[in-house]
Amino acid sequence: MNEKKGFSFNGYAAALVLAGLQYLTLVNVVSAASLPLFWLIFAVLVAVCWGGFFIVQPNQAKVMTFFGSYVGTVKDNGLRWTIPLFIRTNISLRIRNFESGQLKVNDNHGNPIEIAAVVVWAVEDTAEAMFEVDDYESYVSIQSEAALRNMATTYPYDLHEGDEVALRSHPKEVSESLKTEIQQRLAKAGVHVLEARISHLAYAPEIASAMLQRQQASAIIAARSKIVEGAVGMVETALAKLSEQDIVELDEERKAAMVSNLLVVLCGDHSTQPVINAGSLY
Fold first, then answer.
1. Full-model pTM
2. What is the pLDDT of residues 78-105, one digit of tens each?
3. 193: which DSSP letter?
4. What is the greatest pairwise CA distance in the chain?
5. DSSP sequence for 18-85
6. How many Cβ atoms are within 10 Å of 46's Cβ, its own excluded?
7. Over 80: is that where the pLDDT of 256 sits?
């Protein structure tokens, strides 16, 4: 079912017309010696027509039905008039948002995590929102949580390999994926998803401590790798400078000893205590 424009007129113009017809009816009824049937029917019709006025607020709409049939939607703001027999139901077109509850799911690697999301949405097709689903607000909430649960199982919590997309390290990509999945589920409800993003993300309490240790270990390994890489470069530069400027000539054994000492100094966790050799180099 698709939305279509409903039948309505400007309410102020309709009020002037009905006021003129009401005055004409009263004049003829008062001037007539006896009340003709025509004017009686006409007076009743004019009185009934006064019930066709309604007001449409900004960013709201009126969905109209006639004996169970959908006849259109009025989105024009202000005072409007339509056929009095049309039943008019108000529906909001304003932007709304909600935050899902914290869901406990397993990520792509089987780790239990807690996740929640904020979804920003608005009604786009009033006919689908009113007639395709029973309660579109509840439908949005439940389907968004289902999409969040499904999306969380397709990504790992944290980055472990190369360019792998992870929930914690790629918020933009994950948000776009979540928005797309929610939109697919809500398309039949006439709802447009403007934004969807993760608002809460954490490991489940039972594994949080172990995963924290894993993160710390990964950080230490990464830092050590960077330190070693820099230390090797510095040692290489030192040996090259000594050789180029003929400061001292070292055999292979002394070079190995120097490299070992420099790496200990550069890669150590604590400050080293120098030992001064006051004798011969050999």
1. 0.70
2. 999 999 999 999 999 999 999 998 999 9
3. E
4. 143
5. HHHHHHHHHHHHHH-SS--HHHHHHHHHHHHHGGGEEEE-TTEEEEEEETTEEEEEE---EEEE--TT
6. 19
7. no
Structure tokens at 209: 């401590």
3-state secondary structure of 230: helix
Cα 171 to the chain's mean position, in Å?
A: 11
Q: Is 106 helix (H, G, I), strand (E, B) or coil?
A: strand
Return the CATH class of domain 96-203: alpha beta
Report the distance separating Cα 82 and Cα 104, nearest Å: 51
pLDDT digits (tens, 9 = 90+) for 4-38: 999 999 999 999 999 998 888 887 777 765 567 77
At 126-178, the pLDDT tens digits run: 999 999 999 999 999 999 999 999 999 999 888 766 667 888 888 899 999 99
- What's the rounded Cα separation, in Å, for the pair 125 and 187? 9
Q: At what angle do helices 171-186 and 136-152 cross, to 10 degrees?
A: 140
* Segment holding 178, helix H or strand E: helix 171-186
